[in-house]
Amino acid sequence: MAKMRAMVVPNPGGRFRMEERELPEPGRHEVRLRVAACGVCHSDAITVEGHMPGLGYPRIPGHEVIGVIDALGSSVEGWQVGERVGVGWFGGSCGYCRNCRRGDSFACETIHGATGVTRDGGYATHMLAHASALARMPEALDPVASAPLLCAGITTFNALRNCGAAPGDLVAIHGVGGLGHLGIQFAARQGFRTVAVNRGRDKEELARSLGAHAYIDSQTGDPAQALQAMGGAKAIIATVTSAEAMQAISGGLGVNGTLMVIGAVGGLTVNSLDLLGKRAAVRGWYSGTAADSEDTLRFSQLNAIASMNEMFALEQAQAAYDRMMSGKARFRVVLKIGA
Ligand SMILES: NC(=O)c1ccc[n+]([C@@H]2O[C@H](COP(=O)([O-])OP(=O)(O)OC[C@H]3O[C@@H](n4cnc5c(N)ncnc54)[C@H](OP(=O)(O)O)[C@@H]3O)[C@@H](O)[C@H]2O)c1
Ligand SMILES: [Zn+2]
């Protein structure tokens, strides 16, 4: 019997361990993937640290997956063995429950699975995915380097195209990390007047080379005032991992501006006067559906948007995860797994 290998989290807070398992057969509506690469995301901490109650263990994390279909479930139509696909956080949708019929398939009541959290993900040589969770991958994109587009990419791409700003508007990308370095590229290519904001000047040159038209060092001055001096931001895409840093910039919104909260920072305090005086809003955003992933991949290919990655082997998942959590990776960490 053929086997697969996976780096599993044995229990909440446990260290990764290699497991060899029987190669799973796809269910009726599933496909089996041979995984080429899987990105390592901050949000994997939900699985590794056990931040959500009721998760089953052992669990295989990983929601930035690129692979090749190597087996089809009996009811799967429209997909072929050998096709290259991406799978993100979105675990699939049924299409007929109340939320799906309303157009919110991310909240599907039937499948309701988050890849790498409530179902096994891509830190493995093989993985099962619901057919509705698959995104088609443009041939021209590198299958390994592109893995982060399935979470860091889709999240910033989708937040930007849903933030209410129009081409020419001032949009701030707060944080020049894994998400931020892609967010800058997307914002500039989506036509926004793009300002990158980070502490210190270390990443200024890089931010400008990625397309930022301006740069604000949030350590030397008040970043909110700096944005107001530029006319006020139509949107701030807040990818930082610090609530204090997010709070400090929220006063930089212009009239009808929106703070798009992307970073998972827990409690966040915002000055009500900053909001009501500007009719401004604070809005959370998570990644998107398989269709959004497909849009992200295609937009990235058309506009030469690329993730900067540090590569690790599957067996090095613990080191890769630790490196990502250190905040020192430049910029995303990717497990290179198969061909
Ligand atoms: N909403 C979603 O769907 C979604 C999807 C994916 C990820 N996320 C979340 O997005 C966040 C960012 O992920 P990432 O991979 O981009 O992380 P990352 O690569 O570690 O980048 C973190 C950024 O936050 C900045 N930062 C950290 N601590 C700070 C502080 N005390 N003051 C000011 N700035 C600070 C860092 O600045 P330096 O460069 O100075 O270190 C860096 O720019 C995480 O919370 C992750 O869980 C959300
Ligand atoms: Zn993620």
What this model shows, in words?
- With about 350 residues, the chain is an alpha/beta fold.
- The chain contains ten helices and 15 strands.
- The strands form three sheets. Strands 3, 4, 5, 6, 7, 14 and 15 form a seven-stranded mixed β-sheet that branches. It has a six-stranded parallel β-sheet with strand order 10-9-8-11-12-13, sandwiched between helices. It has a two-stranded antiparallel ribbon with strand order 1-2.
- The protein binds NADP nicotinamide-adenine-dinucleotide phosphate and zinc ion.
- The site of NADP nicotinamide-adenine-dinucleotide phosphate has 28 residues, from α3 and α4.
Secondary structure: elements and pairs:
Elements: E1 3-8, E2 17-22, E3 30-40, H1 45-50, E4 65-72, E5 84-87, H2 98-101, E6 126-130, E7 135-136, H3 152-161, E8 170-174, H4 178-189, E9 193-198, H5 204-209, E10 214-217, H6 223-229, E11 233-238, H7 243-249, E12 253-261, H8 272-276, E13 281-284, H9 290-302, E14 309-313, H10 317-326, E15 332-336
Parallel strand pairs: 8-9, 8-11, 9-10, 11-12, 12-13, 14-15
Antiparallel strand pairs: 1-2, 3-4, 3-6, 3-15, 4-5, 5-7
Helix pairs in contact: 3-4, 3-9
The protein binds NADP nicotinamide-adenine-dinucleotide phosphate and zinc ion.
Strand count, sense and barrel status of the largest sheet are: 7 strands, mixed
Basic shape: globular
The total count of helices amounts to: 10
Number of domains: 2
CATH architecture annotation of the largest domain: Alpha-Beta Complex
CATH class of the largest domain: Alpha Beta
Mean pLDDT: 96
What fold name goes in the CATH topology slot of the largest domain?
Quinone Oxidoreductase, Chain A, domain 1
As a percent range, the share of strand residues is: 25-35%
Bound molecules: NADP nicotinamide-adenine-dinucleotide phosphate, zinc ion
Assign the CATH superfamily of the largest domain. Answer: Medium-chain alcohol dehydrogenases, catalytic domain
Radius of gyration: 20 Å
Structural class: alpha/beta
What separation lies between the terminal Cα atoms? 21 Å
Order of helices and strands: EEEHEEHEEHEHEHEHEHEHEHEHE
Total count of strands? 15
**Regions with little confidence, pLDDT below 50 for 5+ residues:** none
Approximately how much helix is present in the residues? 10-25%
